[in-house]
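Q: Got a minute? One more chain.
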Amino acid sequence: MVRRHFSAVSVLATLAGSSLLTAAVAAAPTVSSKPAPGPAVILVVGDSLSAEYGLKRGTGWVALLERRLAAEKIAARVVNASISGDTTSGGRSRLDALLLQHRPTHVVIELGANDAIRGLPLQMTQDNLTHMTQAAQQTGARVLLVGMQVPPNYGQDYARRFAEMFGQVAKGNKAALVPFFLKGIADAVDSAKWFQPDRIHPKEEAHPLMLDNVWPELRKLLK
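A: Always. Here it is, folded:
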């Protein structure tokens, strides 16, 4: 995770044979990844910040989101498909299957921090986020990008371009945006108190604030 005290399958087939076989194949039902009718389905594709790393199960911001939806009487199901250590390349590689399986109405993409930690090219990260955003939108889902920032020790120029990247992807694809997931936590004067001993992953006490950063934008999409 971010080190700061701000710490498908497509199948190609060639059909040959009688017209009867061709007609039978044409009549066969196809699987659609378009959102299913009924309550909203919110798919969260993230990394350790959303996968409850180092926390008791049920105390992370995604679990808290489920409770807030219930409290506000918003009919929605939350699917947390976050994996600790995941990168935008990892998220991109598994997104199609997730869209097909869960047919979400809303997709929250919380990835990118691990790309920075590994020193991956910003253009690759941006391309992956763009691909994921467009793939979700093509199924009819509404997308919320969750932005991150990296500390200045990565270099001022890199830190600036990394932070701006999320906004560029959101604006270019008309997606919703949370500018900084850890606002009020990683940039707080007393930021150290919000993090686990590794000074990378937020404590349980920080997750309500993380939800508060996401909720206003997600709530707009759910209306």
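A: The beta strands are 40-46, 76-80, 106-110, 142-146, 176-178.
Q: Perfect, thanks.
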